[in-house]
Design a protein that fits this description.
single chain, Thrombin, subunit H, 7-stranded antiparallel β-sheet, 6-stranded antiparallel beta barrel, about 15% helix
């Protein structure tokens, strides 16, 4: 909610998740491999009766990418979902607020609110978001850093307007083992209804990465939208993604060379951001030249050990 309308150059890896045949979406997502979208688990399940939850049928979902508005999304930017995989330890009761046992500050927990949507034909006009391993995240991301949330959800709560790609800035507040919290900047802005599953991008000293996925609003604020959020931490779920998707998961580690500013008119809404592309160039470079040695080797090499890491991470 809040924030600013995106431009074509700012679409990056953000996608819209729709019910099949619908003219607009109900959730958002992020492209993490040419044929693979990550989104929130609660966007990819159905609950036919209370307490009975299962993955949505593949034929019931579509994804759209490369567009700024639902009204301008023609058939060329829409793909049918061929397979839906929901995390086997997804806690729907926790996400729906019916049971928050063990929740920490702001409602942070370990509900595994993540699902994968598979497509069979790649998009022509959407980028694959680079990801961070746990070790590189620890090195590059910290409390107080600036991040950007993008999605097709509600951007005007009073009027309930949605269906356009909006971007808002947020401050990383708490980084947990499976989720992270953001706090809003001034003025009000963060995720809202329909942004669920959408990306949280973070600028770092080595480029800009997909850090998390929108899960829900914080539990310690008064507003439903725009006042901080809870995000599924991608680095903690990389072992599950690699195990579930197999060779269909072709992660991108290099941010690349083409810079994409997420800021309106190049302006910097945060006067004193810490490091990253905001500090370097006054813009959030979704694809910027890396510094230091070999981010690609770091990520792709780590994938070889993800099956071993998954056992350790699952015990946290």
């Amino acid at each position: 909610m809040g924030g600013w309308a995106a431009t074509n150059a700012q679409i990056f890896a953000t996608v819209e998740v729709r019910r099949t045949g619908a003219a607009s979406g109900f959730c958002s997502g992020a492209l993490i491999s040419p044929l693979l979208i990550a989104t929130a688990a609660h966007c990819a399940v159905v609950e036919p009766e209370p307490g009975v939850v299962h993955a949505a049928a593949p034929g019931s979902l579509q994804v759209a990418a490369g567009h700024l508005s639902s009204l301008t999304a023609d058939r060329s930017v829409i793909r049918n979902v061929s397979e839906v995989r929901v995390h086997e330890d997804y806690d729907h009761e926790f996400i729906m607020g019916r049971s928050r046992s063990g929740a920490g500050q702001g409602g942070i927990g370990s509900p595994n609110d993540i699902a994968l949507l598979f497509i069979t034909t790649p998009f022509d006009s959407a980028a694959v978001a680079p990801l961070l391993t746990p070790s590189r995240q620890d090195e590059l991301v910290a409390h107080g850093d600036v991040a950007f949330v993008a999605g097709y959800g509600v951007y005007d709560l009073e009027d309930g307007r949605n269906g356009e790609l909006y971007i808002s800035d947020a401050i990383i507040d708490i980084i947990g083992t499976r989720e992270l919290l953001t706090r809003r900047t001034d003025p009000l802005g963060d995720s809202c209804f329909g942004d669920s599953g959408g990306p949280l991008y973070v600028p770092t000293e080595q480029g800009d990465f997909l850090l998390g996925l929108v899960s829900r609003g914080r539990s310690d604020v008064e507003r439903d939208c725009g006042d901080g959020g809870v995000y599924t931490l991608l680095s903690a779920h990389l072992p599950w993604i690699a195990r579930t998707a197999g060779n269909r998961f072709q992660p991108r580690a290099e941010p690349g060379t083409q810079e994409v500013s997420f800021l309106p008119d190049g302006a910097d809404p945060i006067r004193t951001p810490k490091g990253g592309a905001l500090h370097r160039a006054g813009a959030c470079a979704a694809s910027g030249p890396g510094t230091g040695g070999g981010p690609s080797a770091s990520l792709l090499g780590s994938l070889l050990g993800f099956l071993f890491l998954s056992r350790r991470l699952s015990r946290r």
